[in-house]
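Tokens as discussed.
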């Protein structure tokens, strides 16, 4: 039970449909559903449940995220993208059927020196230009051999890499990364994995045996045009309501610091959502919300629990009226651009205190 009029509405059917659409882009590949960071704020347990029987495996960042899913009864294979930080996690991974990414020689040494109750599924991450995680491409065959020599693997590892600029269609690094992965595939005979959402959507050559779509499952890829062509549907709508209305005279200010000052008689709504819920604090006076079929500007400093909205042009607005913070009218990508960030950040920052309401398919 929640009494708050603010919530994030999650359309689970849209996520399942977006997943299906992502698979259609590469019907000969398999697709891991990336559900890290609480499924980009959409609730990893609910998303994992809705994808059961559809996605052959899920992906999270670290073991704790995977164990939360196991505790909730999710039994799909789960790839842990950052692999293990300690030997103890190797044992947990083997006990809980978690697939582990090995991105460093240190992790391979950990495997060599740890006895496991059962064999594990390993992926080997290669650095092809992101320069974040991964074995140097030149060392990949020898590190792969070390992994195999442990005799602790249930199957040949998948070779994975991650693209640094997939959103930029003609970025020269894209081709280099794709070619390096192809080359490694020829050298080792391993199954391959490279594409995230952007690559899957617009770089066909990056689609290998396993793709790893994340943001597109939630319907808000930064590639707006491609998203619309594919038919992706935003899965999250954040809604709040008007809790107070003030009539301001010219010269009167709104909120902490008085950063917004009325230049004319103005009607300001106080809406029940703030940075404590994940609404960005630095809006620079640029962000919009949507109510009564119209857009309205967020004005003044964003408070922890409230924002001010200029509703001077919406005289019919009343206390209790619903306000879309983002959703189908104010797209999260648009808000992200207005506040100088990316949709990923806005989605994953939605705080736990904002109730989720799930629409089941
Ligand atoms: C290794 C890896 N694969 C796949 C993804 C999914 O990326 P996207 O959400 O852009 O599809 C991520 C996300 O950051 C990642 O780190």
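Sequence:
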């Amino acid at each position: 039970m929640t009494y708050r009029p603010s919530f994030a509405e999650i359309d689970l059917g849209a996520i399942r449909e977006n997943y299906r659409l992502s698979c259609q882009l590469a019907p000969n590949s398999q697709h891991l559903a990336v559900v890290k960071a609480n499924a980009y704020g959409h609730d990893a347990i609910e998303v994992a449940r809705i994808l059961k029987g559809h996605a052959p495996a899920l992906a999270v960042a670290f073991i704790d995220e995977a164990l939360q899913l196991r505790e909730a009864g999710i039994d799909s294979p789960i790839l842990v993208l950052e692999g293990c930080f300690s030997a103890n996690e190797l044992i947990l991974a083997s006990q809980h059927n978690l697939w582990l990414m090995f991105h460093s020689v240190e992790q391979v040494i950990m495997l060599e020196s740890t006895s496991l109750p059962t064999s594990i599924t390993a992926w080997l991450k290669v650095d092809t230009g992101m320069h974040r995680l991964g074995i140097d491409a030149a060392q990949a065959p020898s590190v792969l051999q070390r992994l195999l020599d442990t005799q602790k693997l249930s199957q040949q590892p998948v070779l994975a890499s991650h693209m640094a600029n997939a959103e930029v269609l003609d970025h020269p690094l894209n081709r280099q990364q794709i070619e390096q992965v192809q080359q490694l595939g020829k050298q080792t005979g391993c199954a391959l994995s490279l594409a995230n959402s952007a690559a899957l959507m617009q770089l066909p050559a990056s689609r290998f045996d396993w793709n790893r779509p994340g943001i597109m499952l939630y319907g808000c890829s930064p590639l707006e045009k491609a998203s619309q062509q594919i038919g992706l549907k935003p899965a999250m709508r954040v809604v709040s309501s008007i809790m107070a209305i003030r009539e301001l005279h010219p010269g009167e200010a709104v909120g902490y610091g008085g950063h917004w000052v009325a230049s004319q008689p103005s009607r300001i709504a106080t809406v029940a959502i703030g940075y404590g819920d994940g609404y960005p604090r630095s809006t620079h006076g640029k962000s919009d919300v949507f109510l009564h079929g119209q857009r309205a500007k967020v004005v003044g400093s964003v408070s922890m629990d409230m924002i001010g909205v200029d509703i001077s042009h919406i005289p019919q607005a009343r206390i209790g009226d619903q306000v879309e913070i983002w959703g189908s009218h104010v797209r999260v990508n648009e808000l992200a651009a207005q506040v100088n960030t990316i949709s990923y950040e806005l989605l994953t920052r939605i705080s736990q205190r904002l109730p989720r309401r799930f629409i089941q398919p």
